[in-house]
Amino acid sequence: MTTDEETPPPGGPGIGDYGRTFGEVYDDWYPPEFGDGTAAVAALARFGAGGEALELGVGTGRIAIPLARRGVRVHGVDSSPEMLRRLRGKPGGHLVRTVLADMADCDLGRRFTLVYSVFNSLFCLPDQARQTACLAVAARHLAPGGRLVVDHQIPAGVSPGISARHFHTEEDRFRFSLVDCDPVTQVMDRRTVVVTDGDTVSYRSVIRYVWPGELDLMAAAAGLVPLARAADWKGSPMSADSPGCVSVYRHRAPGEGAKA
Ligand SMILES: C[S@@+](CC[C@H](N)C(=O)[O-])C[C@H]1O[C@@H](n2cnc3c(N)ncnc32)[C@H](O)[C@@H]1O
Prior knowledge:
The protein is of the alpha/beta class. It contains six helices and eleven strands. The protein folds into two domains: 18-154 and 209-251, Rossmann fold; 161-207, N-terminal domain of TfIIb, CATH 2.20.25. Helix 3 links the parallel strand 1 (52-56) and strand 2. The site of S-adenosylmethionine has 23 residues, from helix 1 and strand 2.
């Protein structure tokens, strides 16, 4: 682990690549209010009130910067030097303490009132073993009485093979994705294609999605127990067609059985 963002973090091939693909377009595609970002900041501010927070996969600070503006002292881990550089260059970026590291294998040597992972950052880790390792990292950094909050999408109608999804249309551009899904490995290989007059650019991302029950099991393996789960940041109840899931965990108390 290092705070020198010119040095690549330890890890296997591909770790730290995210910003090379998405750094330039990230803040344009995902402005702060995207995906209920405003409600996310409000909820996280309540969990982190009076303490310090750690975001795993902080990106360009879409959530971390407004959270820091609300008085929470926010630290952010990311494996992409490019994403962290963009965070630091934004107004308010100096409020977030950034660490270039692999969120599945790091130790900052301190604990936080709130550890959180939002907007599918956990899905960037390529398999169940690394995702479970990330939850162990989260547990290790959680202070006694602290909370881990994990926010992720629930893929609708997962079926094998390729499906297309329209994203966004502006006057001069059209954005859609082609997703090749393997329900056995839970890996989605996505090509997002941006078409403008006379130009087509494609961006590739490979994610491994997680179901809520699997997240509980991975959390249990890290010594965490579920406290609450909602379909969104406003606390709406989960239903069969909830598009997302916000889960809250705490440390398992000594002598308390694993619940998942
Ligand atoms: C979907 S973005 C989310 C960024 C931010 N949380 C947000 O809400 O906008 C996922 C982030 O996770 C980071 N990431 C991917 N793999 C990582 C790893 N192994 N360790 C740390 N960060 C990682 C990427 O660089 C990227 O910034």
